[in-house]
Protein: Histidine--tRNA ligase
Organism: Terrihabitans rhizophilus
Amino acid sequence: MSTDKGSSLKARSARGFADRGPAELAAARAMTDKIRQIYELWGFEALETPFIEYTDALGKFLPDLDRPNEGVFSFQDDDEQWLSLRYDLTAPLARYVAENWDRIPKPFRSYRFGPVFRNEKPGPGRFRQFLQFDADTVGSASVLADAEMCMMAADTLEALSVERGQYAIKVNNRKVLDGIMEAIGLGGAEHGGRRLTVLRAIDKLDRLGVDGVRALLGPGRKDESGDFTKGAGLDEDATTRIVSFVTAKAEAATDTILTLGMLVNGTVGEQGVAELGEIAAAIEAAGYSDRVIIDPSVVRGLEYYTGPVYEAELTFEVNDEHGRPIRFGSVGGGGRYDGLVARFRGEAAPATGFSIGVSRLQAALSALGRAQPEQPGPVVVLVMDKDRAGDYLALARTLREAGIAAEIYLGSAGMKAQMKYADRRRSPVAVIQGSNEKAAGEITVKNLVLGEQMSANIADRSEWTESRPAQVTVPEADLVATVRTMLAR
């Protein structure tokens, strides 16, 4: 690529993609370490799959049935095979399990963490690349595996300092919804498009309320901006039945299940209602019924779900920068997908899984004031005499050998600029040794955090010079002990 004389390439990130700095990465690492600990406590083991899969491995389970092959980033390799960046972590798991079926234990319990990619229009808070953390059980048809996922999700949120009462794990069953669809005449593959429209309408219940969903189930809805969204075109009876379904949640799980049973009587939904009853009983017995609830409004957008589905929803409100109340809503979800592995094997392979949206949950924890505190940078050894670089390298090595992160200043500036550099590095401590200190076998150690706090109360230069805030001169042999003491503060 050539450029005109005097012009330069513009540095910019691609739309929908974002850089992440050290503070954000450290916070994400601390959060994912806690998630990993909980998953491993429940007996799940780590697995890593590639970012790229053959596109046909995704098959009909692409994210948007209206635009197959457009919801993912795809390209052809040198032998003209179509490849795609993974849309989620579930389809690659299904391929891995099918490929290694004869050698893995069944049920196969694994967790995976990493970026996923969606070829969709980016917007505020909506990225084309984001992080997910999944756990899945493959090879068990028991709904206890689904109940276990919901209980583990509750344990995970609490391990991340989301308190009880600030979240709910909501559970439904796609078979119940299939029964409702059958009852209103939308069963069968020929009605797939209208069923998807109904699913999308139900999924907007929290945002639009019952009246908004009713409009989307019927002729359509015009929003505040004047844009019109075409509805599913259901008649009044069908619309009423769907609304009765999504609003069937009662105070007690048994009452919710009883209502659902009446709505799906004589359809495939009866099996789904029975499964919800089993899940509710298991949750009650395990002591999670105050956190895991049966809620028919949960539908999940992906088509590959075949049974129980669930979402982890944050229920607290915070204010945005303009003082307006906002809710984060769902920060994770999942469900049973018994047909996904079977696509590769031609035989039943039941599976269920749960996925946490790491980036969204991290933002929510920050809003709660419970994000991981910013990690300090390394100790910085200032370079006072350029001809003594070896001495400064040795001091940094001594600190590192004691397990203390340390570096020497590699620029060419003086002491004032070096201190400014240490501040930008979030360094808690600076180590200073001039030629006179070296001759005396001493070293000066400065607590930069405490010094900043103390300097705010110093009135003039003479007071600064006399007090030399948070700074001590010690024998060189005491370097490690002195730095450790300052870091412990």
Q: What stands out?
A: Residues 22-41 form the longest helix (20 residues). The first strand starts at residue 45 and ends at 46. Residues 61-68, 453-461 have pLDDT under 50 and may be disordered.
